[in-house]
Amino acid sequence: MSEYGRGRGDDTWRRGSSYEPSVASSSSASSRARRQQPPFAVPEQRPSPGDRSRWFPPAAGRPSSSRGGFNRGGAPSGAPGSVSGSAPGFGESSRPPAFQPFRGSSGIPGSSGGHGPPGYRPPGHHRGSSQHYQQGSSSHGSEHPAFFAADQPAILDPRFNDSDQDALIGAFNRLRLRGPFPHRPGWGSSGTAVTLRANHFPITFPRTRFYDYTIRIVPRPSIRRIRTRIFQLLEQAPEFAPFGAHVVHDGGGRLISSRVLPIPPAGLDVVIHHYDEDEDGPSPRSVKYTMNITFNATLNTEDLNSFLSGDPNYRNFDALPIISALNIILSHHPSRTGINVGRNRFFFPDPSTTKPLGSGLEALKGYYSSIRPTFRQLMVNVNSCTTAFYKAGNLADAMLEFLQGGGGRLSGFVRGVRIQTTHLGYRNKKTIKRIGDRTARQQSFICEEYGNASITVEQYFLRKYDIQLQHAADLPVVGVGPSAEKPIWLPAEVCYILPHQPFRGKLPDDATTNMINYACNFPSVNADNIVQQGLRHLGLQTAQPLQEFGISVGTEMAVVPGRILPPPAIMYGRGSVRVDERASWNLREVQFIDPKPLRNWAVLVIRDGGRGDFLGPHDPNLINILNGFTNVCNKSGMTVLSDPAVATVNLPVKDLRADPSRNQAIDAIRGALRSIRPKPNVVLVMLSNGDKHIYTGLKALCDLTLDVHTVCCHSQKIRKEKGQLQFFANIALKINMKLGGVNHTLDHESLQWLLEEPTIMFGSDVTHPSPGSLKGTPSIAAVVASIDDKFAHYPASLRLQESRKEMITDLASIVQERLEQYRATSRRLPRRIVFFRDGVSEGQFLTVTQDELPKIREGCARMSPNGSYRPKITLCIAGKRHHTRFYPVEGAGADRNGNPRPGTVVDRGVTAIYDFDFFLQAHGGLQGTTRPTHYYVVHDENNFNADTLQRLTNATSYMFGRATRAVSLIPPAYYADLACERGRCYIHELLSAGETGSEKSANYTEAEVFSDAERIWGSGVGPNLRRSMFYL
Fold first, then answer.
1. What's the pLDDT score for residue 583?
2. What is the pTM of this model?
3. What are 249's strand-pairing partners?
């Protein structure tokens, strides 16, 4: 066996297709002839070790022959295409690390961007499809924008009176009956006080009762569109008319009334005959549904008032039923005037604000609203967002536009789309169930109408309808039959896409860029849009249901107190840095605090038809780049001790029909890497393009089979002279961390609490299969933990687990695994654990304490023979998927774009009443409206006070190893998210089966899919990598 092998066959990545990442683009589906050349080429000659003048900079202390000094400029972070992270020190600061391009149905975060590897979904955004973009992810221009509502006084509410707030904390401290989570220990006081507006609006409601009813539909329709129509018909039913004016419903199974309904004890039955809106009435074939309305509960708003006041007796009051009822009331109006996409999000078609995105798509603006209980005030959180919709029009035109925009396979674009046929002369609406693998000229069927003859779709439409198809040879047919197994084939050009349909798939690159540009606004513009347009569209001022229930919503944003925490001092091995107003610093004249020498390393040049591909190991441009890179490494303290071995691989031409996952290309890369002797410690990979199949296949190959570190970058981007030294620095940051080095640390005062006793910091996250994955594809759990008192290194444990299960199944053994590495490094066990859990919704907080906390304790108990090891545990949820935004009211609290300054913390006014939580924006938002992170303590044995935890969280946000700036999510949680994304590379073929047109979904059971994932995963990350931060 080769020294690279770990008992794994060469066919590890030969099966299956690929996965559908949240954002990455896919290449054109065109097929080309295979190149008539070897799959890879190994250089026959390399510069001799003594010929350092060509390859390497002069020794330290001598002048460099390369472009001396550190240039201005920056390079995008992430790979492929660039190196993730940011080292703005080599000149002017660049973009922050790629924390949140766009993830999941929650959308693009409102703060600074960057680029990640193909399929990269940043923390808090990595579930579901990528259709939602919260307004304000970048801004335009460089002038300081005006503050929102600058002409209005920002007066704090009397509820923030210190004596009242102190009395509230005192009452909590006297509580004998504890709640499910730790109560708030106090209010933070550190930092400089500032005043902020928040996108929360006060709600007033009467002291009264609401009445909660349950609606059951028999038979229960599985399609949401049909359920919505049934409720519309219910409102028109005579039985419903007597009380229709004072009830609202959620369109699912719940009805709220302001009065008691006169219905029998057994409930009211209403029979509905279904028909569509554009039909005149039911037909004899209409499906009959019976809707049964029964009383469920009485909701007393007096209880909610007591809960809001902080009454200790209401500490454990379940406010969810009445709050969700209020959400139904507020959603009644926009659910009729807008398009409901996702939870509490409503979009409003308007030609003046609709933005074409290309690829057959367009963007619509919308708004999110949700009730939030705060101390002495009920609030509604309103935020703006943008999502992609199908552009109404001819399906064939949309399919061609999608292909031209680089959207990948058509199956993910057209499946599930509602269309109306144009060839019958009457309205005939259908849903596309599947896309064919043949064109209208190729697809044939047995036609009873013409004597059971075999006829093609093209021939049938010419003979039956006298229609000469224009795309009979270049577009596949679509299936609109009663099921995917029995389709009725139609040519796309006789199908018209019905309007107002959200696109739930992966956006092509061009559409993504257009969406980001459209959704970007200065904070003041974003806030003004919420107040001027959002409240009106959502009907929060004049809607009839609000008046019927006695509810009113204020027109001005809440004014809340905040504080700006100072940044920590950043420590390097040599030299000092200054943190600027954007929470970033530069690396000029400094060296890493623990630089590792670069020896036995290699460079892999991938040639795949890219414009910036290097010619080979003797390409002068490549030589200059390697010379510049090693110069930067030497200046940072990473002494380069050996020449790199350089291998070149020419990949087979893409053939997305025969090899959609490009397994042949990965085999060629495998051969090129195995030809390098001796086996390198780390490989710098020059990617030809952004092909996600190459990137994920390469990472899986090197992590699981070859057990070697890799750092990827785009050949075309590393060639650019502008920002090139910045680019080199980004690579050096990552390589040093992967090799076990430490780039920077903080001053002792900032780490004081962590250093008082042996402490370990954990971070965890779970990522789920995206749309287009095979049913049964497992979720991936990742847990990282520090290994010593430097709090710089966080090796990771990865596990496959049940599909779409959020709680970590194997957490006990993972915690044991992480503690064992801590003990092996530090020669002791920690006395304290601070655990940050990412990616959990508010409804799952209690489940974390009931499911995961016992497993953490079990993992600790396994570390001692008698199970007596019991460190003090603090468990904190770090959430990014929320809609709270803050807007400064004066220059002292604002950055250059009008966002809050880095270090802004808010723990009053829009936070929990009883529980210990706070919002922290540790990072500097370079563009758009920044999103703070919501930290929520669900268990605390370390007895944190507010200031200590807030300062610690802010300070450690400056410890992200591959960047020279504070990040928006505390590093342990951020690292866990990155580790999850690396795990997605390993089961790429299952995650994107829909994108590559795999037929496994039709043939595999869920158990077989899971078993296939386990086979691919094997024994996991190699033994050399698993004790390092291989996932950076």
1. 96
2. 0.86
3. 255
* DSSP H or E stretch at residue 303: helix 301-308
Asked if 102 and 133 count as a contact pair (C-beta separation under 8 A), the reply is yes
Confidence bin at 1001 (pLDDT 50/70/90): low
For residue 636, give the H/E element and its range.
none
User: Which of 887 and 543 is assigned the larger pLDDT?
Assistant: 887
The dihedral sign for the CA sequence 187, 188, 194, 196: negative
The dihedral over CA atoms of 936, 937, 938, 941, expressed in degrees to the nearest 10, equals: 180
Q: pLDDT-based confidence at 104, cuts 50/70/90?
A: very low
* H or E segment to which residue 1008 belongs: helix 1006-1017
**Phi and psi torsions of 431, nearest 5°:** -110, 130
Which residues, in sequence order, are bridge partners of residue 292? 216, 269
**744: its two tokens:** 């920077």
Question: Would you say residue 998 has pLDDT above 60?
Answer: no
Identify any residues that bridge with 801 across adjacent strands, giving them in sequence order.
779
Strand bridging mode 779-785 / 759-767: antiparallel
pLDDT at 925: 85
The DSSP-derived string for 553-579 is E-SS-EEEEEEEPPPPPEE-SBSB---
CA distance linking residue 249 with residue 779, whole number of Å: 34
Amino acid 701 reads: L
Q: How far apart are CA 542 and CA 564, in angstroms?
A: 38
Strand partners, 40: none
**CB of 379 closer than 8 Å to CB of 371:** yes
Supply the pLDDT for residue 157: 86
Euclidean distance between CA atoms 232 and 239, whole angstroms: 13
Strands 709-714 and 682-687: parallel
Cα–Cα distance measured from residue 786 to residue 789, given in angstroms and rounded to the nearest whole number:
8
Of 210-219, 543-552, 821-830, 913-922, the poorest mean pLDDT is in 543-552
**What distance in Å separates the CA atoms of residue 729 and residue 709, rounded to the nearest whole number?**
18
The model's confidence at residue 447, banded by pLDDT at 50, 70 and 90, is very high
Q: What is the pLDDT of residues 449-458, one digit of tens each?
A: 898 899 999 9
Q: Which two tokens stand for residue 195?
A: 């005043």
Under a CB-based contact definition with an 8 Å cutoff, are residues 976 and 764 in contact? Answer: yes
Describe the strand order of the beta sheet including 418-421 as a list of residue ranges: 393-394, 495-497, 418-421, 429-431
Whose tokens are 């802004």? That residue is: 904
CB under 8 Å to 246, separation ≥6 — which residues? 257, 258, 259, 548
Q: 779 pairs with which residues across the strands?
A: 801
Residue 700, pLDDT above cutoff 60: yes
Q: Could you tell me if 129 and 506 are in contact, meaning their C-beta atoms sit under 8 angstroms apart? A: yes
Burial class (CB in 10 A: 0-12, 13-18, 19+), 37: exposed
H or E segment to which residue 633 belongs: helix 620-635
How far apart CA 703 and CA 904 sit, in angstroms, is: 39
Instruction: Flag the least confident range among 97-106, 283-292, 348-357, 985-994.
Output: 97-106
The token pair at 853 is: 């906390």
Identify the residue with better confidence: 104 or 819: 819
What's the confidence (pLDDT) of residue 1000? 53
pLDDT tens sequence across 837-860: 998 999 999 999 999 999 999 999
Q: DSSP for 757-794?
A: S-EEEEEEEEE-PPTTSPTTPPEEEEEEE--STT----
415: left (phi over 0), alpha (psi -120 to 50) or beta: beta
DSSP track, 712-734: EEEHHHHH-STTHHHHHHHHHHH
Q: Which residues of 663-693 are buried (b: 16+ CB within 10 A; e: fewer)?
A: bbbbbbbbbbbbebeebbbbbbbbbbbbbbb
Instruction: Tell me if 651 sits within 8 A of 691, measured CB to CB.
Output: no
